[in-house]
Amino acid sequence: MKTLLAFRHNDGIGDWMMTMSILKMVNLQYPDILIDVGMEQYYESQAIHDVVDNMDVICRRVSNPDPDEYDYYCGKVGSWGEWRGGEWRGAEKVRGGRRHLIKGMIENFNLETDLNLQYDQKVLAQFTNIVPFNHYKPYIVIPSCGRQYGGDGKRLSGEYDGWATKTFGEKRFAELAKRIKKHYDIIQVGASIEPILDEANRIIMGRSFGEVVGVMRGAEFCIGEVNGLMHLAGHHGIKYYAIYCGGSEHPEFTSYENQVPTWGISLDSVLVTLSI
Q1: Which of 40, 68, 233, 254 is the most buried (most CB within 10 A)?
Q2: 156 and 248 co-located in one domain
């Protein structure tokens, strides 16, 4: 059988979710290709291992792979393009046709591997070990309370650094939670590094993604920034109000069926979308 090495240099959970969907399409369109997934050692984490090891994609996670030992190699699998001069290179194609980011990623994948993988919008990688969750009242999920840290783990200072424009802000999330709590209980999920919402009825942090999906599936809806948990919701058909704050993000880049885009220019603009 032929072999493929899919390698990533980025540890973003959303990027890995989309990468796994590409590999799932390879499973379906090229069933005679065995897939190994490698990652840069610096970025290895249990969260990424959870994504690679527990989704409905037939692959194997490997350490220190040698690309020369494979029939096909993609050294930037899941890469969309380059950020240049205030917008993504090739973004005009997306905005003109409401294409999902995964479609552009597949174009890059084909260029690197010389395969002819076809984009299928119905194919999204999903977790196979989802843990059921119950709560005694109708609830919504807030997957974070404001992106506080950049890709280098340093706290955001406010100026544009590739991450700061993605955050709705801790204070705005707190005010949003106060309004939502008049109508629903609030369950906060996410990484333990995130600040805790005082308004949250339950805090579920640092859990496996199978548990997180179980919590999110039982919610009336989820609301949060454009991050990995937004992609997690999109891949599992969960209603998610995605707060776009500008910068490198645009609603048409991630047009999941159950995603409702809302502009995070102000708290009022988000409340109008929520109709509360």
Answers
A1: 233
A2: yes
